[in-house]
Amino acid sequence: MKKLLSFIFCLTVYSISHAQHARISGQVSDTLNHVKLPNTVVALLHAKDSVLYKYVRANESGGFAFDNLQAGKYLLMITYPAFADYVEPVTLSDTSVLRYDNIMMTLRSRLLQEVVIQQKVAAIKMKGDTTEFNAGSYQTQPNASVEDLLKKLPGIQVDNKGQITAQGEKVKKVLVDGEEFFGDDPTLVTKNLRADMVDKVQLYDKKSEQAAFTGVDDGQASKTLNLKLKEDKKNGYFGKVELGAGTNGFHDNQVMLNVFKKKMKVAAYGIVSNTGKTGLNWQESDKYGQSMADNVNMEGGDFIVISGNNDEFSGWDGQYSGKGYPLVQTGGLHFNNKWNQDKQNIGGNYKFMKLYMDGNSTTTTKNILPNNTVSYRNQRENFNNNVMRNRIDGRYEIQLDSSSSLRLDMNGGIDHKKTNSNFYSEFLDGDSSLVNRNNRQLSVADDIRQLNSNLLWRKKLKKKGRTLSVNVAENYTLSDGDGVLHSFTEYFKKSGGVDSSYLTDQRKVFRTENINASGNITYTEPISTLSSLVANYGLVLTNSKSYRNSFNAGDAGKYDVMDSTYSNSYVFNMLTHKAGLGYVYTGRKVRIQATNNVGFTTFQQDDVYRNTNHDRNFVNWFPAASFTYTFSQQRRLRINYNGNTNQPSINQLQPVRTNDDDQDVKIGNAALKPSFRNNFHASYFDFKVLSERSLWLSVNYTGTSNDFGESSVIDDKGKRTTQFININGNENANLNLNMGWKIKPLNVNLGYTLRGGYYRNANYINDQLNTTKTFNGTTGIDLMSSKEKKYEHYLSLEATYNTSLSSIQQSTRTNYWTYNVTAAERYFLPWQFTIESDVVCNFRQKTAVFTDNNNVIQWNAALVKKFGKKEALELRAAVKDILNQNIGFNRSVNSNFITQNTYSTIGRYGMLSVIWNFNKVGGGSIAKK
Question: Mean pLDDT throughout 528-552?
């Protein structure tokens, strides 16, 4: 009996041990030379989700083997540098034994000569913190721009103004081979660089140079796209010339020239247009007080914010944002080059722009007040503005030796801005009776100068992982302005008729000057092969001066009588010492970072006219932590936290009244305390190679203590007086989900979007605490399909729900839906004709507050005729806004104010254009795909 049991046991063990004895083996060699390929990476992936199961490296003779494999469906993927990936589907039973005697690999350089290549290249990969798109996996039409390519990438949207949104965040920089190309205007790259020149599109959060070197995230980063060009596209020249004339005086003329010679890039552009074309979105407001490369970073909490201009007074920031009718005359030059085995590189940009703006707008505001009362303010504005702007920036970097480098960045600019505005406003009581009426004219001339520089030295010490870096920066801004304010207000009795009137006739002279010097030293010390400690010390010196003088007209009619009530002169001095310690662990799949900085700030504020001063000392904390887990090249989870202290701005601190709008007076508060903000962010990315399914999910939460809020009083005459205060309870949360699929049988790319936002804002109105809670949620789908030289289809459907409630009036809730539909069609006809059409529909639900319909259907169409074998020359006849329904419109809910704004914008016009795309790259014309 014992022998029988032993026999059965042995038989069972033998059966189990052989139940999962599937095996795969083979050998890898070069197709052309029949040379064996040693060290080739051979991976076995689960077919259902492309998750790695096992992998090995081939031996010296190119042989490989997998033993003891479980039954199932797999992908056999073989990769070797410079060769195309080989992918073979495999189905295994419990006893399968598969042998691949001679797997032939093909060089990528030969792919263009091959008729059929059996391969599957991942369209998306994760490389560290970078999402990398393989541009060749997304088909574009001949002569397509980078913007056309970006529209096809999952998780990336490009609006009709060229603004790029990636994974729910606005893209602030677009680089070419890692270098800035015309600096801070991404549209000059995306609209003028050719899609077929791009090899990879990389998406990441660009950190400061010092943070990138030390590996320690400093909490400040900008969403960035980097376009890696194909090697054979880096020699030659290309560009575009477009000449267009239209109805009603519209015109659009553009030229762009690019010369690439290996590492050297030279480019120039010019634009003369009144259609709102590219070259206007410079984002120069981000440059004030920062160097070109954003290298220096003190978490933003140690600076007193001094505006480099006087936008609050003039009401215009010097840019075109879709409001009004623009005329732009702009041009620029770009140069960058590397030499001496890339040990030295230099780059720079120069830009010039004249922008003329005129138009009008109408704003309706409903004030929700305590005791179930409401009031209304209606305002009309006519404006005529212009700005002349010069910008120059440069960068030089040298590798001093094998372990150290030096980088210098500089930028500067001069603006001359003029604004002229005429306002008419009425304030109405809840029963629509007239409370006051105001006519106001404002003319301002403003000159702005800035100069910024940044020097960064980096050193790798003898011990691996031990580094030292020193960063020194200087920022200087100066703004001089002169303006005239003429305002006449009439106040009315309840019974009707004028009760009183008030006239303001003043000259305003203002000047702000800010000098900021900072330095930061960072040292990293490895404590193991995977982890290190980071120590840093920083010093910031700030000297700021600001005066704003108001003069009434004297007996001789000159503005020479100072109005002390609306005049001020302040000097701000601040010294901050900051030190911190951090820990960083970097494993194969896990990366952990935890840091904390503490800042000691001495703050001096002197009121020169009133001979008073405020001296204060602050202790500021800057904790930060992050956790990243990389499941595979196509899947990653990341969680971030950072806390930072923020100082109030000068406009918030100055305890002086301003009467730029005497119906909306603001008062500073010298007793404001710094605020502290907690930021939490989590993101998850997943991409499946076979199904080409992509998923991005991100969640954000921000809560602020001692936030800079407002306390407003609206008196019985309709005058609003606001003072800045510290307040608690402000918070917001956001969710963003983007998904994409490739429906192969239909040749359709399907995308799904889900966005949501929750905002809680606290303020005081007529001495009563008011909390406004706002929520908006958006869901949408988009479909895209194209076939080369045949057609392009695009359809996007979005629905958004908005709701808002203020605590002072629980019965008044603002709820409404908005719907957005976008459709675009392009058909390629015989004889090189193309017909294009796109429709953008915006539908907005009426509410008790927003009673206007304001539904818009904007339809554009064009007929294009191309000439030549390479279709380099084209004649385009287009009509914009065929139905003439384009209107400027937006709605907003802010605290206890519900606002609707309509403004003039470019309407219907026809345009006849001649466009020449010229190129000679890589020793010959760019080949078609």
Answer: 90
